[in-house]
Amino acid sequence: AHMRNKASYEPPPPPKPAPPPETGPVVPKRVAAPNTKAVQVSRKQKGNPVIKCIKNVPWEYGDIVPDYLMGSKGQACALFLSVKYHMLHPKYVYGRMEQVKVGFRLRVLLCYVDTEESHKTLLDIHKAAIMNGFTLILAWSPEEAARYIETYHSYEDKQADNIQERVQGDYMSRLTDVLTTVRSINKTDVANLSTNLGSLASLITASKERLSLCPGVGPKKVQRLHDAFTQ
Description:
The protein is of the alpha/beta class. The protein contains 10 helices and 6 strands, in the order βαβββααβαβαααααα.
């Protein structure tokens, strides 16, 4: 205070402002590109037992709209739905289908059948898939569901011949291939039917009584053959 009263007193200069911090150019964070060789899995699928069963192809979590993105071109996607969940939330699948309505060449609805009382519910799910242009795939276990995902991923650009069963060209082999699609009909039954009735045309037009005369072809097999030929 005494110094301030003197005529020669000069107040100290104000403090210099602090220099601005050296920021430099802003470097954006590098985001790793998705691995095109891996199945892309939505983070919403965490906890789904299907993921642990994907072992034959690589997979990784990604910020994607569908539940699974398959193939290197990103044109095949899958939505996952369990029958039990659909029974509790029947509108859920319609909203999810709407989210992936465009932008994909193949859209798969992978349905996990996790309850025995599923007939009516599966009809509803099938109808939803058809109306929205989805391919419906049913799986009865997480392992089976994972195999479908792996197959779609691996066979993206493969020809149909690579996954079709090889069928021999001779008549008996082709007849066996056709008739064994009927439940419980085996190769021995085919041989007996062919020996007793001849051609496939004769088999198709044969009566139940005539079919039952073939050795080893009991009433149940006769009924199943008759249903296959007439329905």
